[in-house]
Design a protein that fits this description.
two-stranded antiparallel ribbon; 671 residues; alpha/beta; 10% strand; 42% helix; Rossmann fold; 11-stranded mixed β-sheet; 17 strands
Length: 671
């Protein structure tokens, strides 16, 4: 994002820790350096102390040996040397790795043998070929231009070859290409210390940057095609990085030789398990979710489910103050992920924070839909979701008027509901807050690459078979937005190094994905991403054409500076379409960490400024930066509107009895 305040985007010395859909941002997906867990217990790990007795071939699990420990110890700190393995143990482990490969193949074939359909990627492949073809046509249309582009690549590679030859001859040579500062793939010293691997690394970087330049400099190609070409190229270059392969990654080679291949046995066992868990598709484990239990480790704020229908459970949270604000708060989370991202743990819980400020908090917990919900569209999610929740809040508290929050696609749904309510003269919502929400999709985020007409048609065809979009497809889409951080990092760490992912609550939540009902998802993709009907005045719902200009209540509109799903510029431009008072606030970081930034441990700052008018960059230039969390700014905004207080309300003591303890049942349903 090109902004003049980029140098202020982070607090000094701090690094962003967010990764996704709704997702998680790349930095959050990075494994915490102090939290590398022990390998999977199902396959014993190589022991740090070499055994005194040489292991016999009949032993189970990866084999270790002490044959060459003395030589290996001497080479341990030299990045140019590889340890000498115990070849007998290495052979045994390679045989066991082959066995695990067979299990992975069997898990992949199982759905085919049972008659289940395979994922159809032909449409995406064809689209990629057409997209790259458009770029190639631009360069091939002018032979001189094509020759100059080719000469630029070959010139850089010849320069690299010359530098490598110097290094192999014992001379010093400056690198031709260096990785970006945040690129962790080539952090191991061996990539620089060993000329052969340094050549592979630099050749990869040169080729990747050249290919990106070919797209950027294709002047006659429309921006949408350029964006798609960049996206597809990112997938290819991410997959072909030499850091992803054992034979071209010195760090992986050293680890494999040190452990006599035991890491491959563990990794391939995890690989087979993840294919089986994905029912024939690879479901990459990004966190050790076994360490997190809903209601015990996550989603722990006390409360009760006080209402339920086919689409929602409504949770009312227990007060922690003797008096509360008279006006309740209703939170509408996205249904693409589960609501407890706002209640990850007591230290990071936005829900708990709101309760502690004296707000009576209600949260919608959406059902994880299946074929029974295929026909539930946007209208159903408004009437059976938001409107039903408003009715229940009034019964539980006696209050007709509420303030609301909509997060991501939950915010888009809330905005459409507000436009509908304006036409219906329904004034129950006094004010609204939007977290990283798009209503105008002209400059939509990275997900636009999946929202072309052909892709949407393919998704709709797939949804017709089951009545819903499988959660794995959405998870894959979000991972593809940042393949190096969200795919290949885990492929290398899990399946080649053989290390279990760390226990990380945000990634455990991110892995707890949901399905999307066919009617709802089709309406959203077509009316928002493809046709952008809401801000064009062409959105039709319940037989009415809706306009955001009819929404005249006060709005607090939170964007996140590094958000790739709902870009801050897109949120800013969308804010111009509302008809009432607008407070636009930009938080540091991305789609998740920008929102989940508690005052007790703030990692990022936020910016406030004048009205939403003119260019986004101009607003940013004039905006005021404030250190710390935006939560305090928001709670002041919301309580100033309705300062009256009443005696605290216990869930289940009003007209609605408590049905069960929070976080309820719907959130526990796995995909």
């Amino acid at each position: 994002m090109d902004m003049t305040t980029r140098s202020k985007s982070r607090k000094s010395g701090k690094k962003e820790s967010e990764s996704t859909l709704l997702l998680v941002e790349p930095e959050a997906a990075s494994l915490p350096p102090a939290a590398v867990p022990s390998p999977a217990p199902a396959v014993p790990q190589v022991k740090p102390e070499p055994p005194k007795v040489k292991p016999e071939a009949k032993q189970d699990g990866p084999q270790a040996s002490s044959k060459s420990d003395s030589r290996n110890d001497a080479k341990a700190n030299n990045p140019q040397d590889f340890p000498v393995p115990d070849f007998e143990a290495l052979s045994l482990n390679l045989a066991r790795a082959t066995e695990q490969t067979g299990k992975a193949l069997a898990a992949w074939l199982k759905p085919f043998e049972q008659g289940e359909t395979a994922p159809d990627t032909s449409g995406q492949v064809a689209d990629a070929v057409r997209t790259f073809g458009a770029v190639a046509d631009y360069w091939l249309a002018d032979p001189q231009r094509a020759m100059e582009a080719q000469q630029k690549l070959t010139g850089s590679l010849f320069e690299l070859w010359g530098a490598t030859w110097k290094r192999m001859s014992g001379e010093e040579a400056a690198p031709v290409a260096v990785p970006e500062p945040g690129d962790k793939r080539f952090a191991d010293p061996s990539w620089q210390a060993m000329p052969a691997f340094d050549f592979l690394r630099q050749a990869y970087l040169i080729s990747t940057r050249w290919a990106n330049e070919m797209i950027d400099q294709a002047d006659t190609i429309d921006p949408a095609t350029k964006d798609k070409a960049t996206f597809y190229l990112r997938q290819i270059t991410g997959a072909l990085s030499p850091s992803n392969f054992l034979a071209t990654n010195p760090e992986l080679m050293r680890k494999t030789l040190t452990e006599n291949g035991a890491n491959l046995v563990r990794g391939l066992q995890m690989f087979a398990e993840d294919i089986e868990a994905g029912k024939g598709n690879l479901r990459i484990r990004q966190a050790d979710a076994s360490k997190f239990l809903l209601g015990r480790d996550m989603a722990t704020t006390p409360g009760k489910v006080v209402f339920q229908n086919d689409l929602i459970e409504l949770i009312q949270y227990a007060p922690t103050t003797p008096t509360v604000y008279k006006r309740p708060l209703l939170i509408v989370p996205p249904w693409i992920n589960k609501f407890y991202v706002l209640d990850l743990n007591p230290e990071k819980s936005f829900v708990r924070f709101c309760v502690e400020q004296g707000l009576t908090v209600f949260v919608i917990s959406w059902v994880n839909p299946d074929e029974r919900h295929a026909s539930k569209g946007f209208s159903a999610y408004i009437h059976e979701g938001i409107f039903a929740a408003l009715d229940a809040v009034e019964k539980a508290t006696g209050e007709r008027h509420v303030t609301t929050i909509g997060y991501c696609v939950g915010g888009t749904l809330l905005a459409i509901a507000l436009a509908l309510m304006a036409q219906l003269r329904d004034d129950r919502i006094d004010s609204a807050t939007f977290f990283t929400t798009q209503v105008d999709f002209t400059d939509a985020g990275d997900l636009k690459w999946f929202a072309g007409a052909e892709n949407i048609a393919a998704i709709e065809k797939k949804m017709m078979e089951r009545g819903y979009l499988d959660s794995a497809q959405m998870a894959t889409a979000f991972n593809m937005l940042r393949p190096n951080e969200l795919i290949w990092q885990y492929v290398v760490n899990n399946y080649i190094k053989g290390v279990d992912p760390a226990a990380f609550d945000l990634l455990a939540w991110n892995s707890d994905s949901t399905r999307m009902p066919a009617a709802n998802h089709s309406y959203y993709l077509r009316n928002c991403y493809l046709e952008n009907n809401l801000t064009r005045g062409k959105l039709e719902l319940d037989g009415r054409h809706l306009s955001l200009k009819d929404v005249t209540i006060p709005v607090y509109n939170l964007a996140a500076k590094e958000d790739h799903i709902a870009p801050a510029r897109s949120v800013f431009n969308g804010a111009k379409f509302f008809g009432g008072p607008m407070r636009y606030v930009m938080a540091g970081s991305g789609h998740i960490a920008g929102v989940v930034n508690p005052p007790n441990k703030p990692k990022y700052q936020f910016w406030t400024g004048g009205p939403v008018q003119g260019a986004f960059e101009d607003w940013v230039t004039k905006a005021t930066e404030t250190a710390g969390s935006w939560w305090l700014d928001w709670v002041n905004w919301i309580t100033t509107q309705a300062p009256e207080k009443v005696e605290a309300r216990e869930p289940g003591t009003g007209a609605l009895p408590a049905l069960r303890e929070a976080p309820g049942d719907y959130v526990r349903v796995k995909s």
